[in-house]
User: Which sequence fits this backbone?
């Protein structure tokens, strides 16, 4: 299987940008095929067994070498590992976004798109909005 | 997944799932149902009558920004005949309120609604920055809460309005219900779900977003590209509210109707008369004229503590006794300006403004 790079536009708002260098808009490139355990090494070519990153414990962690098409769940881990600057617990909880964070994929509520299982396409735009800040 | 069509118009592509109903609807239908539900909330509770002067409590945050937009839209669409104002309180918090007030000033232009900003400094002679430098970060939310509530009423009095609407949404109200249950505050439990409250001689306060989910408010702001400010108050770690909020969001994730269910259960509490009787009778503050359940209103009590360097005197009984033991209040204590009960002054009467001493 050949691995392409997907270019994605990511936006954080509603106060969430404060966790990401206070920058609302980001462009990231992620591989189209990723480890099934969502481990996010800088180079996707590194075999999963060589990854020494601190991974959350999940049953899939033992499935070394298995892959899947890059989905929103993988993207969240990628953002957490590569862009998040502080307070990881305010972004992710239990393998998904913290309750109270809305996700839009190409301006559509992710609840209509399969949530974390949505398979990313090149040039997708993903927006994360916190509803927990201010009134 | 293939795109689905809107459950309401069957024409356009669905773009959001409503938390209340699970319905999948398009952007246009979402705007329409969201606005119509707020309109229904307003008309069923008979909140307004033509000619009312209504101030929108505007913080620059998402809820009040969406409220200003929706109030303007509905006032025009259904000819409510309301005179709308934006009323903002400047607590004097550098790096927080000064930025959010810039948002409110832009809203004033965007919505073409007159804006009144009233500051803690001009009312109380103290900014929150100054208060925190004296009392520290522990009890500062007590000061801010009391001062903001009174400031809104005083601002409304200077504008001659009889009604303040605030952006409290269904999530906020459900959270308050939970907190009152946790605290065992039965008297507040029924009251906190009321859509409109009015003390004996005070201005009405209403929550037109009582049944509007936070998710939909944020989605509305996002789809309409409304300009709002979203930074946490730098002095408000407010852990208790934080925990109730997280708990509520977890409940909502498991069952989206939980928020409305909690509001309904709060509404279903009927407070029996003997419980009500233990609440104190209302009188007016001897120093400033604001309604109060004691000789001095809460703001005057807090202010006296601040001025006399005993800031906690209004927070604990022991500190209050210590303050009283220090002797009577000095004569030169500040009288908080800009308040006269609307019933006494009439809606259009000029407001007596006393020069700060
Ligand atoms: Zn539709
Ligand atoms: Zn007073």
Assistant:
């Amino acid at each position: 299987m050949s691995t392409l790079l997907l270019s994605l536009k990511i936006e954080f708002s509603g106060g969430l940008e404060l966790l990401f260098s206070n920058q609302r808009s980001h462009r990231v490139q992620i591989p189209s095929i990723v480890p099934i355990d969502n481990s996010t090494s800088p180079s996707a070519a590194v075999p999963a067994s060589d990854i020494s990153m601190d991974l959350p414990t999940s049953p899939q962690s033992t499935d070394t070498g298995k892959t899947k098409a890059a989905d929103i769940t993988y993207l969240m881990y990628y953002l957490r590992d590569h862009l998040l600057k502080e307070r990881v617990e305010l972004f992710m909880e239990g393998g998904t976004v913290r309750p109270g964070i809305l996700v839009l994929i190409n301006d559509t509520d992710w609840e209509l798109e399969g949530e974390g299982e949505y398979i990313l396409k090149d040039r997708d735009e993903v927006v994360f909005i916190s509803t927990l800040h201010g009134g | 997944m293939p795109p689905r069509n809107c459950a309401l118009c069957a024409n356009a592509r669905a773009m959001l799932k409503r938390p209340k109903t699970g319905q999948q609807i398009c952007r246009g239908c979402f705007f329409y149902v969201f606005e119509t539900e707020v309109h229904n909330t307003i008309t069923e509770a008979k909140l307004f009558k033509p000619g009312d002067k209504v101030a929108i409590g505007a913080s620059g945050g998402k809820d009040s920004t969406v409220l200003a937009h929706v109030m303007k839209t509905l006032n025009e669409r259904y000819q409510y005949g309301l005179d709308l104002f934006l009323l903002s309180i400047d607590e004097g918090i550098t790096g927080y309120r000064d930025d959010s007030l810039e948002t409110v000033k832009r809203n004033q232009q965007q919505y073409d609604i007159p804006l009144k900003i009233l500051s803690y400094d001009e009312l109380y002679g103290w900014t929150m920055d100054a208060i925190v430098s004296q009392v520290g970060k522990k009890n500062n939310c007590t000061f801010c809460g009391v001062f903001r509530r009174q400031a809104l009423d005083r601002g409304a009095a200077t504008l001659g309005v009889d009604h303040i609407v605030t952006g409290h949404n269904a999530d906020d109200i459900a959270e308050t219900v939970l907190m009152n249950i946790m605290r065992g505050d039965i008297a507040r439990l029924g009251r906190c779900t009321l859509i409109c409250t009015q003390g004996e001689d005070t201005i009405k306060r209403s929550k037109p977003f009582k049944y509007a989910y936070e998710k939909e408010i944020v989605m509305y702001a996002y789809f309409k590209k409304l300009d709002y400010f979203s930074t946490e108050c730098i002095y408000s770690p407010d852990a208790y509210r934080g925990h109730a909020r997280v708990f509520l969001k977890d409940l909502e994730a498991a069952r989206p109707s939980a928020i409305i269910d909690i509001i309904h259960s709060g509404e279903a509490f009927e407070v029996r008369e003997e419980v009500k009787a233990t609440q104190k009778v209302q009188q007016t503050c001897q120093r400033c004229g604001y309604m109060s359940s004691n000789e001095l209103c809460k703001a005057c009590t807090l202010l006296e503590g601040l001025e006399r360097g005993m800031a906690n005197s209004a927070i604990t009984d022991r500190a209050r006794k210590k303050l009283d033991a220090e002797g009577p209040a000095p004569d030169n204590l500040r009288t908080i300006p800009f308040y006269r009960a609307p019933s006494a002054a009439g809606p259009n009467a000029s407001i007596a403004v006393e020069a700060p001493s």
